Amino acid sequence: MGHAVGDVLGLAAAVAVSPLPIVAMILILATPRGHLNGLLFALGWVLGLALLGAIMLVIGGAGAASTHKHPATWVGALKLALGVLLVLFGARLWRRRPKDPSKAQLPKWMAAIDRFSPVKILGLGLALSAANAKNAPLTVAAGASISSAGIPVPQQIGTLAIFVVIASLGVLAPLAVYLLMGDRAKSVLGNWRDWAAQHNVAVMAVLFFVIGLKLLGDGVSVIAT
Fold it and tell me: How far apart are CA 90 and CA 203, in angstroms?
């Protein structure tokens, strides 16, 4: 199980460093129902990662992702495809990044986040984890790595749980600060929000590129072996 955890730690860390969901969480905490909405957003986030990862474990089990404790060729091909996708996304984002970070703009839907119903907040958490252009491929890659590690199903589930916990640290950090510090958290969270909003595109571009190259290397290694 240890080697499986090691394989997904980098992917989990890359998911955790997600500026846009972190900004969304901070804005949600500033709504009138900040406590409830923050918990619902966190729940949606965790459920999205867990469900997508679980689906990959099922697919991996049905598709014999591990043969003689070695990843199957299709796992390598999947990682190769995901790596190419992330590298291309990274290059595209880097070209489109604002030259002046202070002029970076957040998505328009964030301006209406204080009017979101609890159901929409829960759905937003699901969408930003399981349907995000960065987080979904990374979670799929993590699920493929776990299912191809040649470990028993209970250990696969345990490894996925570790992945989800680490991948959720970025979103859970503002919630923890809010719950522990109360009104004093406003300035801290405000600084986090401003930094994440200004550097969102650049951070995403670098993460796309670096993790994409890692997946490319992993895919080539599996196919070539």
Answer: 10
Dump pLDDT digits (tens) for 73-105. Answer: 778 888 888 889 889 888 887 887 777 766 667
Phi-psi region at 53: left, alpha or beta (left = phi > 0; alpha = psi -120 to 50): alpha
Q: CB neighbours (10 Å) of residue 158?
A: 16
User: Coil, strand or helix: which one is 206?
Assistant: helix
What pTM, to 2 d.p., does this model score? 0.84
Angle at 12 between CA 7 and CA 15, to 5 degrees: 140
163 with 146: CB under 8 angstroms?
yes
Average pLDDT over residues 133-158: 87
pLDDT given for residue 152 in this prediction = 86
**Pure H helices in 131-224:** 135-147, 153-167, 169-181, 185-224
The domain locations on the chain are: 2-224
pLDDT band at 189; cut points 50, 70, 90: confident
- Confidence at residue 66, expressed as pLDDT on a 0 to 100 scale: 62
CA 19/CA 199 separation, integer angstroms? 8
89-114 core/surface letters (b: 16 or more CB in 10 A; e: else) = bbeebeeebeeeeeebebeeeeeebe
Q: CA torsion 85→156→130→102, rounded to 10°?
A: -70
Length of the chain: 225
Give Cα separations from 32 to 26, 126, 134 (angstroms).
Answer: 13, 21, 30
What integer is the mean pLDDT of 130-149? 87
